[in-house]
Amino acid sequence: MSGMLKLSVQNLLRHRTRSFLTMLGIAAAVGVLFSVFSFNRGFDQGLARELQATGLHFMVVPVGCAHEVAALVLHGAVVPKYLDAGVIDDVRKIDGVELATPILVAQLPNPDRHRIDLIYGVEMEVLREIKPDWRISGEIPTAPNELLLGYDVAEHAGLRLGDEFRYPAVDETFIVTGILERTNSQDDAFVYLDIGTAQRLMDNPDGATAIGVKVSAPERMGSIINQLEEEMPGIQIVTMSQVMNSVANVAASAKSLSLAIALVALVIGAVGVMNSILMAVFERSQEIGMMRAIGASRWNVFQIILKETTILTIVGGAAGIAIATVGAQLIENYVRRIMPYVPGGDMLSFDPTLALACVGFALVVGLVAGLYPAWKASRINPIEAIKS
């Protein structure tokens, strides 16, 4: 350790409580900054992953709010609108449409289990194509009296493969032939039925909340969408990228607010560093004057003070990253409770590049905050300081 660096460390240790509190402020600011950037990155990656997992290129839905469509695609939300019965046949006739499948999302009371189940009606023969990342224990239902349970539904009800699942309100009993392995998404909360069975249970023959469409050549998607909109008025077509933009816009305000809070916290931490170092300079005026009297240059004094701010910001920043990493699960659980939508999977994870960037940014801010105290210390007149 060089002489000046050792002297800087000793100066900080002489006022341990003040140095600790200053580093704590920097640690809190850097921890929040790291968590915000890490969460934003995890959010975008998780959203893209969930949209990719749909296996579809776009959705045909009744005309309505784009946010409702995003909720339907990502949450499986219940939308109180239905497409006309003939739309599915017309969509399938369009050249370039490889797959078009009706989807019916509805709620069905289950008095036996004191809950309301979310029903997801879909053509079981295309389930592998529209949910390519799913892992299923057992078999996909093939008969009208069979169903597939989401992970959470099966866990909460304590159901296993082969168990009976009854809906007394419609006097129907089903056999559990498959259970979805945990996806950490809204998919875990559904009861999956064949579309025909779901329509019959909901007393809505041919009803569909949406039509999922996959095209044979993605580069032709624009022309296919234009053709659908020209030939079928009264429908709305939303691509997966539009769904992503819609959700991203909803989350943007929360992201901006949290980032602003992190930056304000960092500025407050920098002011704390400036205040702490400036107080130390005033208290050590005689000492600095003696250093100048025995040969230390202004540049030597400037370097010593600036190294003190560097140590404070680096140690505080590293502590902030460590705290944010250790408490990532708690932070993520809290954010999931207050945000309307968060993709499945881990949103917060340690990224060395991001961690170094946050500490580096804090270091720059800390150095800027330390310039004035260092300049002030370097301007101390040795004779006046020793006399005082």
Automatic annotation (TrEMBL):
<keyword id="KW-0812">Transmembrane</keyword>
<feature type="domain" description="ABC3 transporter permease C-terminal">
    <location>
        <begin position="260"/>
        <end position="382"/>
    </location>
</feature>
<feature type="transmembrane region" description="Helical">
    <location>
        <begin position="20"/>
        <end position="39"/>
    </location>
</feature>
<protein>
    <recommendedName>
        <fullName>ABC transporter permease</fullName>
    </recommendedName>
</protein>
<dbReference type="GO" id="GO:0022857">
    <property type="term" value="F:transmembrane transporter activity"/>
</dbReference>
<feature type="domain" description="MacB-like periplasmic core">
    <location>
        <begin position="19"/>
        <end position="230"/>
    </location>
</feature>
<comment type="similarity">
    <text>Belongs to the ABC-4 integral membrane protein family.</text>
</comment>
<keyword id="KW-1003">Cell membrane</keyword>
<feature type="transmembrane region" description="Helical">
    <location>
        <begin position="259"/>
        <end position="282"/>
    </location>
</feature>
<dbReference type="Pfam" id="PF02687">
    <property type="entry name" value="FtsX"/>
</dbReference>
<dbReference type="Pfam" id="PF12704">
    <property type="entry name" value="MacB_PCD"/>
</dbReference>
<keyword id="KW-0472">Membrane</keyword>
<keyword id="KW-1133">Transmembrane helix</keyword>
<feature type="transmembrane region" description="Helical">
    <location>
        <begin position="354"/>
        <end position="375"/>
    </location>
</feature>
<dbReference type="GO" id="GO:0005886">
    <property type="term" value="C:plasma membrane"/>
</dbReference>
<dbReference type="InterPro" id="IPR025857">
    <property type="entry name" value="MacB_PCD"/>
</dbReference>
<feature type="transmembrane region" description="Helical">
    <location>
        <begin position="311"/>
        <end position="331"/>
    </location>
</feature>
<dbReference type="InterPro" id="IPR050250">
    <property type="entry name" value="Macrolide_Exporter_MacB"/>
</dbReference>
<dbReference type="InterPro" id="IPR003838">
    <property type="entry name" value="ABC3_permease_C"/>
</dbReference>
